Amino acid sequence: MGPPKQIKRAFLGFDLSTQKLKAVLLNCKMEVIAAAEVKFDTDLPEFRTTGGANSGTEKNEYFVQPVMWVKAMDIVLDRLVMQQADLSTVVAISGSGQQHGSVYWSKHGLKTLQSLNSDKFLHAQIDDSAFVVNRTPIWMDATTTKQCLEMEMAVGGKLKMAELTGSKCYERFTGPQIRKIYQKRCHAYDEAKRISLVSSFISSLFLGSICPIDFSDGSGMNLLDIRKKVWSQECLNVCAPDLDERLGPPISPNTVVGNVCKFFVKRFSFSPDCKVVASTGDNPSALSGMLVNEKWLTISLGTSDTLMMSLKEPLNWEEGHVLCHPTITDQYMTLLCFKNASLVREGINKSMSGGNWDKFNEYLDSTPRGNFGNMAVHFNDMEIIPKAQGVLRWNKDIKPQSPEAAKGVTKFSSAQIEIRALVEGQMLHHRAVAEDLGYRFGHETHILVTGGASVNKSILQTTADVFNSPVYTQDEGHEAALMGAAYRAAYALYLEELGKQETPLRYRDYILSLTTNKLNLVCEPHKDSQEIYAPMLLRYREMARILANPNE
Ligand SMILES: Nc1ncnc2c1ncn2[C@@H]1O[C@H](COP(=O)(O)OP(=O)(O)O)[C@@H](O)[C@H]1O
Ligand SMILES: O=C(CO)[C@@H](O)[C@H](O)COP(=O)(O)O
Q: What is the pairing mode between strands 20-26 and 32-39?
């Protein structure tokens, strides 16, 4: 077999998500010509991550060592080269990064980034000394409640914060995380010359200098005025001193930020003309990769489960997030993120079906919808919405207001029932939260699913039933966040090459002019879905309320 066929111009996308770094190379028809990934837990065991993260000594503390991401970049590029991918044909690169995580560059790190030696690995140069914080907080961290309250209070309350930045303060958002570092490790903050998000960190590596933060991922910081698309001075002031210098001005996600630096030209044969495009957050990137219009509800079943929709005007939500749209830059998107997702499914799969997804599915499929009245809520980690922790199981006999309700039952009678209770409980949770914020679901709703668990048809069938809506997947075989990164690279280059005279095609029209978005209808809801799940939604709400109010 000869080397993979390449049509001259290729586009390279990366997704630096929670558990892996993935890369995809597309030809000019947006067809995949090479792909590679590096799984942190197994490919980089020296960093001792579980599910891509390290847990700290503080309750709800999660971090990673940023050098792990640098090392993963060395390996993923080598893996592409080992597939004989011709990187000299790449004309544009962009990335997708897990949202909210932050990287704190030292003076030495900035200097190193600008003078990379192509004879050495990246991680041999951008090592621990490049960062002033070597246990860098990621999105799973929830240790900043104090900083959230301080920031909200200083701007005039939760609602004011939400109106300005698209979200009330959430523990994992970068602003409260930066404030915690400023308060607890003031030397590190003083020495941090620049602060990147995970997304802008990827583009910075390729640029060989700091790439600005794009305003779509920047909307996940509680620092950006989402209407004006500039940092809110009010939020910066209440977060940490001289923060604007460390962040640099935000840019459109469609920006070509420069050419790839010499290191990549010499070491991997990239063309010196190859463009680096701003990277964005993995959820905005997934929306970019889904190529559907605003009528679709999109769901990512990655480490976190997320629900996303495009939005013409920003909403004033008390919970959930409104972000600047990644591709239609005068519009917005909604985002709901659920933390107890794949890792909880994985845990139950391990304990109930020996870690075998086929067996997990066999068990799930062998139980009826509604699970004989057995339900479970699994918030192993502090959930984001509602803010609640614990596990609660109810059988059909438990009455919501009864003394048994808070305790529930300790376990169910079979692995089959446990598994259905978990998956139904997760989907009921997602639907209830979305409905409480005003979403409406039914046959007219179409759901497009991506992310690691989207290969699981039994989970998708439960999703279709609980949401009472048909569920589709894309034909790609690669996740939307990753594809979205390469698509955005292609679109930003198209805008740049078109120049200012002509009216450009919109992102979706442009990408669909190169490729088709083949969607597969995977599951339709059963006819009795509404009848079964409407009463379960009411019971679920009470279970979640109990977990959110443990002292009542
Ligand atoms: N067949 C499957 N059924 C259910 N879940 C799966 C299956 N295969 C993979 N997953 C889940 O996908 C998750 C990883 O999803 P992915 O989107 O790659 O994560 P991330 O982008 O957050 O790193 C894993 O935690 C795993 O539990
Ligand atoms: O915190 C959020 C979104 O607000 C998470 O969705 C992260 O962006 C991580 O994404 P995955 O690795 O689960 O895709």
A: antiparallel
Q: In degrees rounded to 5, what are phi and psi of residue 518?
A: -80, 120
For 342-442+523-548, give the CATH class. Answer: alpha beta
Ligand closest to the CA atom of residue 173: 2
Q: What residue ranges do the domains of the chain occupy? A: 10-278, 342-442+523-548
| Residue of 49, 62, 139 to mutate, ligand 2, most atoms within 8 A of C-beta | 139
* The amino acid at 263: F
- The complex's ipTM works out to 0.99
State pLDDT tens for residues 254-272.
999 999 999 999 999 999 9
- Do residues 86 and 2 make contact, with C-beta atoms less than 8 angstroms apart? no
Who's near 141: CB < 8 A, 6+ residues apart?
A: 60, 61, 62, 63, 171, 172, 177
Q: Is residue 137 in contact with ligand 2, taking CB distance under 6 Å?
A: no
Of 353, 334, 322, 289, give the one whose Cα is nearest residue 167.
322
High-pLDDT (> 70) share of the chain, % = 99
Region 418-440: what's the mean pLDDT?
95
Query: Which three-class secondary structure string do you get for 313-373?
Result: CCCCCCCCEEEECCCCCCCEEEEEEECCCHHHHHHHHHHHHCCCHHHHHHHHHCCCCCHHH
If you ran DSSP here, which 8-state letter would residue 62 be given? E
pLDDT digits (tens, 9 = 90+) for 60-74: 999 999 999 999 999
Work out which ligand 2 atom sits closest to the CA atom of 282: 8
| CATH tag, 10-278 | 3.30.420.40
